[in-house]
Design a protein that fits this description.
mainly alpha, 60% helix
């Protein structure tokens, strides 16, 4: 974790905002409610309803709660499928 904290002399993204810090903190200390909500959101499918940045912030929080790898193909596929269709076209290889 130490290398992640000091990348470019900045803390990890999870700690940039107080809301993200609180989510990170509660996840680390086993708040079962957050984990259950994240599991439910993940299983029901992710859907972008607003800005892409807000969507990816939510995805980041869910992945953090569940401990899923960010760069795994299955994770990326599910995240991309939740994007609005005109944004998905930018991710098609």
């Amino acid at each position: 974790m130490e290398s992640e904290v000091y990348v470019n002399n900045r803390p990890p993204k999870e700690l940039w905002k107080m809301v993200n810090f609180w989510t990170f903190f509660m996840t680390q200390f086993g708040d079962k409610g957050l984990t259950d909500k994240a599991k439910m959101k993940w299983s029901m499918g992710l859907v972008q309803t607003g800005k892409v940045l807000d969507y990816f912030d939510e995805v980041e929080t869910i992945l953090l709660c569940l401990g899923y790898p960010r760069d795994a193909d299955m994770t990326m596929d599910k995240v991309i499928m939740g994007l609005k269709s005109h944004i998905q076209t930018h991710f098609i290889r």
